[in-house]
Specification:
- The protein has 16 helices and 20 strands.
- The strands form six sheets. The protein has a six-stranded parallel β-sheet, covered by helices on one side. A six-stranded parallel β-sheet has the order 13-12-11-20-17-16, covered by helices on one side. Strands 4-5 form a two-stranded parallel sheet.
- The longest helix is centred in the C-terminal third of the chain and has 20 residues.
- The radius of gyration is 27 Å and the shape is elongated.
- The N terminus is likely disordered.
Length: 553
């Protein structure tokens, strides 16, 4: 079986892996010799392609993004996000609310003692500090670049002024980079680790608070750029630093710099520019206890869009093995739901926002799909404002709630979905996940490699939407149909089947995609050749491939 480890090792393309890839899940606990708790192992991260997979695979217990928000990263199970108010620009009502909503601890200003960082005087930082305190979160001091232990230095001046004004500081975050000696080889590791230990002891002796080492790595940063130690030295340095930190009871957490490479820098990331785990990444994973034997994360559940096309539909739905289905309605459309299959209701358009439809939806499922293609005049045909006005009635069902399912452009700033989501956020409306539709265009259907082109375009769209909103996704309609408004273009049926398999494999590598549904179970009159069953109720090659995929879930 192909696993996520195979993909992350660069041995196979995400667009061509077979279905059933395993995903890293739970986190083991860690203890120092003698049974005392080790400091929590973390990492600094930012949004890149496949960052969700890398973060989950690394086994990190916590991470931060130098921002009050996740940076559109999906936090893995067993991992904690820690927000930061990096600069004074983050001190907005929205930034502070994001931080409070995203975590329980808050990191203070990033490198205020550096012109390239927050660039604040101690008195300026103390003046702004009550705003950070108002979040009610456990609060870390500003993260100085260096010299945290020096009497009269930046941090010492801040802590003295904070104490005089009764300001709260709960722990001290620190950064540390080695000297040039580490570049000479493994023989310098012991001295560098001893130097770091001395620094931590001096800071703790000065302020008497717990310490978080939020940036540590085997990289020397200088005015002319950065220099990283040899990969083997990086890995051994990580091992020895972690062992040293485990013996310091006041060190609560540490974070390696960084998860992925920093553009233009010679650094020591856990995963390289090709998303391949590095030598130091393997050691981090080993320390974290991450491995292929951990419980797999569930891949996206295969589903189908259908309607009552005759008595045969009940048998057809059961034979496909679909995990779920929907009918573009609040009811089953007289379809019998098979065992181990879930019906998901939908409020299709404004005419369906009625007591009867909403009651049917609440009685028939646990999740509710929002309006169908409100951005199209021939579908729900709603403005974002009219959808928002009706939204409280959908929320009142108490069901898990999907945003309106737009026909296209879900990632476009100022587009229909973006306008709706912005309005929902400002009005405090609830949206739990994003349903999407994706179909091919004529260019894709005319390409030499239809399956490859379609899979790439689909994945890029899903990633763009997830990056914009940071919510789970459901792909509720997709197939190789180009809806031209005249004679629709439909790919050959064998190509459709190959695309279905490739798409399922690709979505299995996107942990933010919870479910997908092919369009459609019975044939649709203007898109013949894309359904699981044909006009004679005979299963198509697409249907056979769907059933084989569903049998693996």
């Amino acid at each position: 079986m192909v696993t996520r480890r195979t993909v992350l090792n660069g041995a196979i393309s995400v667009a061509t892996v077979v279905a059933g890839s395993t995903l890293i899940g739970a986190r083991p606990t860690s203890a120092a010799p003698g049974g005392t708790a080790r400091p929590l192992h973390g990492v600094g991260a930012w949004y890149t392609q496949y960052v969700d997979l890398m973060l989950s695979d690394s086994g990190a217990a916590w991470y931060f993004t130098w921002a009050p928000h996740h940076d559109w990263i999906t936090t893995p199970d067993g991992c904690e996000f820690v927000p930061m108010i990096a600069t004074a620009d983050d001190l907005t009502a929205a930034g502070l609310q994001q931080a409070a909503d995203s975590g329980t601890a808050l990191l203070g200003f990033q490198k205020p003692d550096d012109a390239t960082g927050a660039n604040l005087t101690p008195s300026q930082a103390v003046k702004l500090w009550p705003q950070l305190e108002s979040t009610g979160m456990r609060l870390g001091a500003p993260v100085v670049r260096a010299n945290a232990h020096v009497a009269g230095g930046w941090l010492d001046s801040f802590m003295t002024a904070a104490a005089s004004k009764g300001r709260r500081v709960d722990f001290i975050p620190l950064t540390w980079s080695p000297s040039e000696a580490l570049l000479s080889g493994a023989g310098a590791i012991a001295g560098e680790v001893a130097s770091l230990k001395s620094y931590l002891e001096a800071v703790h002796a000065r302020f008497g608070r717990p310490i978080w080492l939020v940036e540590v790595g085997a990289v020397l940063w200088g005015q002319s750029g950065s220099q990283a130690a040899d990969p083997a030295v990086q890995a051994q340095f990580l091992v020895e630093v972690e062992a040293m930190l485990a013996g310091l009871s006041y060190v609560e957490r540490w974070a390696w710099f960084s998860l992925s490479p920093l553009a233009g820098a010679d650094d020591a990331p856990l995963y390289d520019a090709n998303n391949v785990v590095t030598t130091v990444g393997e050691e981090f994973r080993a320390l974290a206890g991450a491995g292929e034997t951990e419980p797999p994360q569930e891949p996206a559940s295969p589903g189908i869009g259908t309607w009552f096309s005759g008595p045969a539909v009940n048998t057809q739905l059961a034979d496909t093995g679909a995990a779920w289905y929907y009918t573009w309605a609040s009811h089953h459309d007289w379809i019998t739901t098979p065992p181990d299959c879930e019906f998901v209701p939908m409020i299709w358009g404004p005419a369906n926002v009625t007591a009867s439809d909403l009651q049917q939806a609440a009685a028939n499922g646990t999740t509710l799909l929002g309006f169908n293609e409100p951005d199209r005049s021939d579908q729900a045909n709603m403005t974002p404002a009219s959808a928002l006005a009706a939204w409280p009635q959908l929320e009142a069902t108490g069901l898990r709630l999907g945003a309106p399912g737009c026909a296209s452009d879900g990632h476009v700033p100022g587009g229909w979905l973006d306008t709706f989501m912005s309005g929902a956020a400002s009005a405090g409306r609830r949206v739990d996940f994003i349903p999407l539709h994706w179909y091919a265009n004529n260019a894709i259907l005319g390409s030499a490699d239809i399956v490859g082109a379609a899979t790439t375009a689909m994945v890029q769209y899903l990633e763009a939407v997830h990056q914009r909103y940071g919510l789970p996704l459901w792909l509720t309609e997709f197939s190789l149909v180009s809806w031209t408004g005249g004679t629709n273009q439909v790919a050959e049926i064998g190509v459709q089947a190959d695309f279905l398999e490739a798409a399922d494999a690709a979505m299995a590598q996107l942990p933010f995609v919870e479910r997908w549904a092919w369009f459609s179970l019975p044939p649709f009159e203007t898109a013949l050749g894309a359904s699981l069953y044909d006009q004679q109720d005979i299963i198509t090659p697409i249907g056979t491939r769907f059933a084989a995929i569903a049998a693996k879930y």
